[in-house]
Design brief:
This protein is α+β, with helices and mostly antiparallel strands. The chain contains seven helices and 24 strands.
Length: 438
């Protein structure tokens, strides 16, 4: 509804002319950009209720504050957000902002200076899970991303940085291609929140003994992310899922899970069994009266899905560069690297890690990708740091996620026979010791 409504901006906002067809923008990590004739939209698959529209007012006859009030009035009508009209305008050195009334804000408007002299660029953040009401303001229709909390702050920060980046690129007069080329995975990895990095990654086995690690043809792998204890928390987070964006969601937030419960991403609590790491871990639900499990447990949303707690994945070294080819045939991978084969020939569970920091992968999972995963093989840059993974795809998408590896039998170091888990997708050489692997 919101995107359809805002598409009317093209004919309705006379004087707010900016040729976005000629604009080149770098989306914040996890966001996707789409354009209309004089506005752009930012969306995320993992935040389906959040829509952001960006427009610009470059009319010289209006002051910056007059431009902001005009845009605020426009969105009051077009975004069906009546309480925004009476919302107080907050001014800071960076620009202007206003938020609709109610326990949960449906509309938030952020404006900053534009690269064209006197211009103003504005971003409207709309939460469609909240119904606007003239008396009460925002009325939640279900669980929402409110105006408070880590997720709301992260959204706000992403949009502000997006507006600043657009301004800086234009001011620097640097060619867009050169700016994009300067973005490195190492630099993006430095933005990965340190407090969102897991301490451990534990393999979970299905009770039938079949999983992607031991049987070819099975996709995905259950694993348990364990986050470290903090003094300010009474509980220590554990999640049996790996596809969510740690830059956006806080693993310690007790008010919401980082990904949907129907994706088996319920939050658990963990501890060392009998207080000794040598004994492994045990987990329970958030209820203090709940039973602790150290061997088997059932996912809360799927009573048929019984899992057993297995071994710990090994962490990657910080900044580790590898020269590995994992998949069915090393010959195929040699041909991929020397250009005799197309990337499309890489199997879904194939992975090539190069010592220069480049990678090729048959499949990458991420909640920030449309459909939850890549539509086919991809390539780009990688950065490992413990169980934290940062990927920069050549298509421009940035993926913050999790990973670890398991050795083959008694091997001490990674080889082409190792198992590598990135965001719950298993890369492994199912041919094991056969000649095809060599």
């Amino acid at each position: 509804m919101f995107l359809k409504t805002l598409t009317a901006l093209a004919g309705a906002m006379t004087g707010l002319a900016l040729s976005f067809a000629q604009a080149q923008d770098i989306a914040p990590p996890g966001w996707t950009i789409s354009y209309s004739s004089n506005s752009l939209y930012l969306t995320r698959p993992d935040l389906p209720d959040i829509r952001v529209a960006v427009v610009s007012d470059v009319r010289p006859e209006l002051t910056q504050e007059e431009k902001f009030e005009f845009i605020k009035t426009f969105f009051t009508e077009r975004a069906d957000c009546p309480s925004l009209a009476q919302a107080e305008t907050h001014k800071s050195f960076a620009g202007y902002s206003a938020t609709s009334a109610g326990a949960s804000a449906r509309c938030k408007l952020i404006s900053m200076g534009h690269w064209e002299k006197g211009g103003l660029q504005s971003a409207m953040i709309l939460n469609e899970a909240v119904e606007e009401n003239k008396i009460l303001g925002g009325v939640p229709t279900r669980g929402v991303v409110s105006d408070r909390g880590h997720t709301a702050e992260a959204i706000h920060q992403d949009i502000v940085e997006f507006l600043m980046t657009r301004y800086q690129i234009a001011e620097s007069k640097t060619p867009f291609e050169q700016v994009r080329a300067q973005i490195t995975v190492d630099g993006l990895a430095s933005l990965y929140p340190q407090e969102h990095k897991p301490a451990h990654l534990v393999r979970l086995r299905a009770d039938n003994g079949l999983d992607a690690i031991t049987h070819a043809g099975l996709t995905g792998a259950h694993a348990l992310l364990l986050f470290p204890e903090r003094q300010e928390d009474s509980r220590i987070s554990a999640f049996p899922c790996m596809q969510w964006d740690p830059a956006m969601f806080d693993p310690y937030d007790t008010t919401r899970t980082p990904w949907h419960k129907d994706n088996n991403c319920e939050r658990y609590v963990w501890r060392w069994k009998e207080g000794d790491p040598a004994n492994g871990i045990e987990i329970r639900t958030l209820s203090k009266s709940a039973k602790w499990f150290s061997e088997h447990f059932t996912l809360e949303n799927d009573e048929k899905k019984k899992l057993s707690i297995g071994e710990f994945y090994k962490p990657f070294e910080a900044g580790q560069r590898l020269d590995l080819r994992i998949g069915t045939t090393r010959k195929t991978m040699d041909q991929l690297l020397d250009g005799r084969r197309q990337l499309s020939s890489l199997e879904s569970y194939g992975l090539i890690l190069q010592p220069d920091g480049r990678f090729m992968a048959g499949t990458v999972l991420s909640s920030t990708l449309e459909g939850g995963k890549t539509s086919g093989p991809v390539q780009g840059q990688y950065h490992f740091d413990g169980h934290a993974v940062t990927l920069l795809l050549d298509s421009g998408e940035v993926i913050y996620g999790f990973g670890g590896w398991l050795p083959y039998e008694n091997e001490e170091t990674m080889s082409y026979r190792s198992v590598i888990n990135i965001n719950g997708w298993i890369y492994t050489a199912y041919c094991e010791g056969r000649s095809l692997c060599k």
